[in-house]
Amino acid sequence: MAPRGQDISAASLSDFEVGVTLGTGSFGRVRFATHKDTTTPWAVKVLKKSELVRLQQVEHVISEKTILDQCKHPFIVHLACTFQDKWYLYMVLEYVVGGEFFTHLRNAGRLDIISTKFYSAQVTLIFEYLHARDFIYRDLKPENLLLDKDGYVKITDFGFAKRVIYKTYTLCGTPEYIAPEVLLNKGHGRGVDWWTLGILVYEMMVGQPPFIDEDPMGIYQQILIGKVSFPRFIERNARSLIKKLLVADLTKRYGCLKGGALDVNKHRFFQGVTFNDILAKKATGPVIPLVKDQFDTSNYEAYPDSIEEAPISVCTSGADLFASF
């Protein structure tokens, strides 16, 4: 992995030796790439302009770049540079060698309380950092957390992140993780992130989110009813934290009260956790990914090479949409 904070010079994809696909999405894919001048590994996010315009995602991707440019945190993936051509936008991101946290969670089935505390503490520190800068993330889920070589998380995919002083009204997120105030279109703010933390803590300990259904509408109904069932093995302090995060009433939800993130950090669930040690990466991660070297991509799922039709160029007026990228 390239040193955190290292920046490189790149004007086009020809500055890289492009390798395997690390992940795919609605607007493009992420490719492993080696920067030719520095021989350092990177993850290049390739976004198709025509799809961004068609799906009305231009504002989101510009916001993603703007926010990542302003974030320097050990648990937030580093954006080194961006560039574009006629058809695509390119975001050159820190390569996180350990793969998706989602994969490790599924392999484990569910996590013990020590492991859950370790990862939850890092997410809490991420949200504390973002909220202090008026950013909300809005898309927490195991797929958006990566593991570095030391087993610590790096949060990625800031496509739904936004600078919000008070409230915003865009419906976005993953069905199982959406907060009730988003569904009710009442306007939402940083409280949505604390709700998603409650869902993540539950999923880590139980092996699935608290609200599940084959139909998203069924999930939404459960979220609005708000009844959380706990398996017997979930210990008291974990139940308490989850309940205090999964509260529809924002005047009672932990993270939204006067104490902010400190209310979460000081909860009995985190007894024995020293947040400064976690931030300084002094603790040993419960899962240390098997890594051969900094160029190892074996912790990511194998994707077939894309066989794409000729990309559609964005007309001149549409290209202006990307002027600030």
Automatic annotation (TrEMBL):
The keyword Kinase applies. It holds the Pfam family Pkinase. This is cAMP-dependent protein kinase. Signal peptide: none annotated. Residues 271-325 form the AGC-kinase C-terminal domain. One of its GO terms (cellular component) is cAMP-dependent protein kinase complex. Belongs to the protein kinase superfamily. One of its GO terms (molecular function) is ATP binding. Residues 16-270 form the Protein kinase domain. One of its GO terms (biological process) is anatomical structure morphogenesis. Keywords: ATP-binding, Kinase, Nucleotide-binding, Serine/threonine-protein kinase, Transferase. CDD domains: STKc_PKA_like. ATP binds at K45. It comes from the Eukaryota.
